[in-house]
């Protein structure tokens, strides 16, 4: 695009007259956006076309050049989309017209390319950015031998002439800070790009693949592809590598992780048109230079149009991105791009490794240990570390130290080894973020845990690169970095010694250090960054312009790059490899074994399953340490691995675990406490292992008490996985693989007031009608107090009162299934049935009762229990064993001590209010409902017809997972977002949830 030009002055009426005169076409004409050309969309019987009137400064020669390019691309099998212009009645594909002021303009009629502009598409998925790189690569490859004299024209956007353009417009920048930022990138350009100018291939490139020039086909949420590249007005003969650099620069604008966007485009480009190593080396600098050109040319445009506020608004994202890129070492970006192109990230890393391997047995010990003979303990400090119940425990340095020392004592070892490559939750401070904006959790060194004051030695000859005291929390404290050279080469590398006593460091930068020289003493907690005393030893192949510090952990997103920057320190330390032999299966291996050995009907959540290795309160963690906010698992009721619940189970398991034929107090303590939570006359407790067992037992109790067999249920209900329960679960027996409703089961209408806005009497009367269907009578009416699989439905007020009245009048008993919603989840009451003002005859409990431990219960009246006591003993080997009872009691204690019922009420209201606000903003939300922390959002594509938006619901669940938040979908039509998190879900968690959901609801696939 040119720096500034005036749009042609033709009205829509004048344009229509020209089209009829030159092309004999009539139809609907609308104005399209254009910065330099006046564009109209023509819809007529022959199809859809774009009528383009060029600005008066556009040369005929350049337009002819574009058409030759179109003709060339149209003959290329790779490009199925034709750009060929429509011929006028004069058999010309370019015509000339004059406006009312006598100005000459050229015009053309081009095919309209169907699709969406990339600029209007949300989100830009990685696969789409890869396809953009691929499309540009194919385009450039097709034009590699193309030339035209029009391309040798003045153009401000020529990358190889960028410095001249910046010199011209840089004085127009608003602030000194902006000018200094541009000068930084200019210096980088001169240092890195200009010296290899002659090694960079040149060819004709599009030169302006910004998101307004890219057309996308969106056939589905996860299947998007580039349809076409438009607007060839800025074509130029330039460095070929500028093409992916320009596309990446625009794609990175406004992104949370801009480097990730660049990686996908570069990977796609390279996979289809290989970049040279030199081209990859300059890519990052060219990306930055394109952004510099953009802001400087924008400053020029603003100087010509000072009242045009849009210029300032459009300029700001580029400045924001430049500020981010300024903080990224160009070498790091280069290594990342090399890795995306299939190359070793740090090119000399392999030579460093080879040299170190050749020096085996020549290195001196770094501490006073013999790694081959002294007893060493491999310390698992990873995501699944056994040393912490709560990952936050590691923040307490003294407690952490006690834990490590106890582990060493128990193992009779004199030192502990923290391995290389381990993903750790220890690095939870905001400082542990890498250049791409991702958490740095993968350990890049080896830790040697020995007492403070231990001597530390240089492992090999070198010079002191730096010594420093990084005394901030969770930093290195005293830190020494030595520089080493590989003989007869220009390759250097570094070794880092961290967590030293700063006052003990004996050398200054530039000093020669010999292998075996003592360089410092190990620091204590007060001066080593607040860590348990240990030496962090690391190899570094490139300091990335750091003067006296270097990352000790890298991110999983860029693991190959970080491990190329910091190869395994055991190349020097020589710790026996047997110590590190710990079987760690990767996700794909586990998935394969699961598919080979386990029940094939057992599904996994999400398109890309999560390899979970730890849970803590409202969070789950995968094997690489990524944290997920759990908003769907109501089984860990008071929080995943709640410390008090874990401790209660551990303490009891060490003491006694047996079956209920023996007399022990924990079961009576628990039953007595549990029964206090129920209204009279619910006074007898049966303990079992699962909600399914509880519901099966409830049916037995009801059938024995009434002498009847038939059961009344609600449509779409689910009550468990036993055969007796599949019979009463339409969610299963009416679904795929089911055999339908058996004769002894009678299905009442689901009281879904959103889809069936009837009265309470109408819904309750459906129960009455079912009660009358059985000739021999009904044993029970079973109903969840808030419907789960039915779609998170809150029963209409008074529904259970009327339904229970009908049930009891028919001589049947009322069973409340509280497996999902009991124990305070509804917020206002401890049990869901209490919100309806009723007392059931039997209540079943499961899932949350044991916080993930297999525990369940049936609560009933003395009358029903005595009737069931007919001589046939009810015995459950593990139901109510001492460990289960202790855990159940701990759950009740935590609920009370942490006031989690009230938390569910408050946080649930915050979420529900937020959902209501979103409902007003996003038409796809048909209904929001729920109580406390048991909530649902029903999505529809038509508010009148209530057409289920199942695909959109699934998409939102997947995208929330990508945002690090777990939800799921349910309901008869699989279109209800299900939210039922652990009860410790906080106000901040709710606000984070709402923020992410708002962003995702704004994305294209969710719009209706």
Concise structural overview:
The protein is an alpha+beta fold and 1008 residues long.
Structure description:
The chain is an alpha+beta fold and 1008 residues long. It is 34% helix and 19% strand. The protein is built from 27 helices and 38 strands. It has an 8-stranded mixed β-sheet, covered by helices on one side. A 7-stranded mixed β-sheet has the order 26-32-31-30-29-27-28, with helices on both faces. The radius of gyration is 35 Å and the shape is flat. The protein starts with 11 loop residues before the first helix and ends in a 7-residue tail after the last helix.
Note the gap between the termini. 35 Å
| Helical segment count | 27
Mean pLDDT level = 93
Q: What fraction of residues sit in β-strands? A: 15-25%
* Contiguous runs where pLDDT drops below 50 for at least 5 residues: none
Major sheet, described briefly?
Answer: 8 strands, mixed
How are the strands ordered across the major sheet?
11-12-14-21-18-17-16-19
Residues in helices, as a percent range: 25-40%
Structural class: alpha+beta
Number of strands: 38
């Amino acid at each position: 695009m040119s720096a500034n030009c005036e749009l042609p002055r033709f009205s829509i009426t004048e344009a229509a007259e020209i089209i009829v005169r030159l092309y004999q076409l009539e139809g609907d004409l609308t104005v399209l956006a254009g910065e330099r050309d006046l564009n109209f969309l023509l819809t007529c019987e022959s199809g859809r076309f774009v009528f383009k009137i060029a600005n008066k400064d556009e040369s005929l020669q350049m337009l002819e050049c574009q058409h030759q390019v179109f003709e060339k691309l149209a003959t290329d099998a790779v490009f199925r989309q034709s750009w060929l212009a429509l011929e006028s009645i004069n058999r010309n594909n370019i015509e000339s017209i004059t406006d009312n002021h006598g100005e000459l303009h050229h015009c053309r009629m081009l095919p309209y390319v169907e699709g969406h502009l990339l600029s209007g598409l949300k989100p830009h998925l990685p696969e789409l950015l890869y396809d953009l790189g691929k499309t540009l690569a194919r385009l450039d490859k097709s034009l590699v031998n193309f030339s035209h004299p029009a391309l040798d024209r003045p153009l401000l956007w020529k990358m190889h002439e960028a410095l001249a353009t910046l010199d011209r417009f840089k004085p127009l920048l608003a602030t000194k800070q902006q000018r200094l930022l541009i000068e930084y990138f200019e210096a980088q350009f001169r240092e890195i790009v200009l010296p290899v100018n002659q090694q960079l291939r040149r060819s004709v490139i599009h030169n302006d693949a910004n998101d307004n020039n890219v057309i996308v086909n969106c056939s589905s949420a996860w299947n998007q592809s580039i349809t076409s590249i438009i607007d060839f007005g800025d074509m130029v003969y330039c460095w070929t590598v500028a093409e992916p650099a320009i596309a990446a620069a625009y794609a990175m604008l406004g992104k949370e992780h801009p480097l990730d966007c660049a990686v996908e485009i570069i990977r796609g480009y390279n996979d289809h048109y290989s970049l040279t190593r030199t081209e990859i080396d300059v890519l990052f600098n060219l990306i930055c230079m394109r952004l510099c050109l953009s802001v400087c040319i924008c400053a020029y445009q603003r100087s010509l149009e000072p009242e045009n506020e849009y210029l300032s608004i459009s300029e700001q994202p580029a400045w924001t991105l430049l500020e981010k890129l300024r903080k990224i070492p160009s070498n790091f970006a280069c290594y990342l791009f090399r890795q995306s192109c299939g190359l070793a990230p740090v090119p000399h890393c392999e030579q460093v490794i080879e040299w170190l391997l050749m020096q085996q047995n020549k290195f001196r010990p770094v501490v006073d240990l013999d790694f081959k003979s002294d007893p060493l303990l491999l310390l698992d400090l990873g995501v699944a570390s056994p040393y912490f119940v709560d990952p936050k425990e590691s923040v307490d340095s003294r407690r952490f130290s006690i834990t490590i020392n106890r582990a060493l004592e128990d193992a009779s070892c004199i030192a502990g080894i923290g391995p290389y490559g381990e993903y750790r939750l220890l690095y939870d401070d905001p400082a542990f973020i890498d250049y791409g904006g991702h958490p740095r959790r993968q350990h890049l060194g080896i830790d040697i845990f020995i007492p403070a004051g231990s001597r530390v030695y240089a492992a090999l000859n070198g010079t002191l690169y730096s010594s420093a005291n990084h005394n901030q929390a969770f930093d290195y404290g005293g830190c020494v970095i030595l520089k080493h050279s590989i003989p007869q080469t220009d390759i250097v590398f570094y070794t880092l010694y961290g967590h030293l006593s700063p006052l003990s460091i004996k050398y200054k930068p530039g000093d020669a250090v010999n292998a075996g020289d003592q360089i410092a003493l190990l620091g204590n907690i007060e001066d080593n960054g607040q860590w348990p005393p240990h030496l962090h030893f690391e190899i570094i192949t490139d300091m990335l312009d750091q003067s006296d510090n270097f990352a000790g952990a890298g991110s999983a997103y860029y693991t190959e790059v970080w491990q190329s920057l910091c190869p395994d320190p055991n190349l020097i330390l020589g710790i026996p490899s047997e110590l590190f032999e710990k079987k760690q299966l990767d996700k794909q291996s586990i998935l394969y074994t699961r598919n080979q050995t386990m029940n094939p009907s057992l599904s996994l959540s999400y398109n890309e399953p999560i390899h979970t290795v730890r849970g803590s309160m409202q969070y789950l963690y995968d094997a690489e340490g990524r944290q997920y906010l759990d908003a769907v698992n109501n089984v860990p009721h008071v929080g995943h691995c709640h410390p008090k619940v874990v401790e209660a189970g551990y303490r009891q398991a060490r003491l006694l675990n047996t079956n209920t034929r023996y007399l022990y107090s924990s079961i009576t303590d628990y039953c007595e406490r549990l029964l206090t939570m129920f209204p009279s006359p619910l006074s007898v407790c049966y303990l079992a292992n699962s909600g399914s067992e509880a519901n099966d037992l409830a049916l037995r109790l009801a059938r024995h008490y009434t002498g009847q067999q038939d059961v009344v249920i609600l449509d779409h209900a689910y009550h468990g996985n036993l055969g007796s329960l599949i019979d009463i679960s339409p969610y299963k027996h009416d679904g795929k693989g089911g055999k339908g409703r058996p004769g002894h089961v009678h299905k009442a209408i689901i009281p879904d007031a959103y889809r069936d806005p009837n009265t309470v009497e109408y819904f309750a009367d459906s129960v009455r009608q079912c009660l009358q269907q059985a000739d021999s009578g009904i044993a029970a009416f079973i109903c969840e107090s808030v419907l789960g699989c039915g779609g998170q439905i809150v029963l209409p007020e008074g529904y259970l009162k009327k339904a229970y009245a009908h049930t009891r009048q028919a001589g049947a008993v009322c069973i409340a299934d509280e497996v999902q919603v009991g124990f305070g989840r509804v917020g206002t009451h401890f049990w869901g049935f209490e919100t309806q003002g009723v007392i059931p005859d039997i209540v079943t409990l499961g899932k949350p009762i044991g916080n993930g431990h297999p525990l369940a219960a049936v609560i009933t009246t003395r009358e029903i229990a005595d009737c069931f006591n007919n001589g046939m003993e009810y015995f459950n080997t593990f139901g109510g064993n001492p460990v289960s009872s202790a855990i159940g009691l701990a759950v009740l204690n935590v609920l009370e001590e942490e006031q989690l019922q009230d938390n569910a009420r408050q946080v649930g209201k915050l979420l529900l209010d937020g959902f209501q606000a979103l409902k007003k903003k996003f038409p796809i939300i048909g209904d929001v409902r729920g109580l406390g922390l048991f909530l649902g959002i029903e999505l529809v594509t038509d508010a009148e017809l209530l057409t289920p938006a199942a695909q959109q619901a699934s998409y939102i669940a997947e995208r929330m997972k990508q945002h690090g938040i777990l939800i799921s979908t349910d309901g008869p039509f699989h279109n209800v977002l299900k939210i039922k998190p652990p009860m410790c879900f906080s106000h901040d968690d709710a606000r984070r949830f709402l923020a992410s959901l708002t962003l995702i609801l704004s994305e294209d696939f969710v719009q209706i």
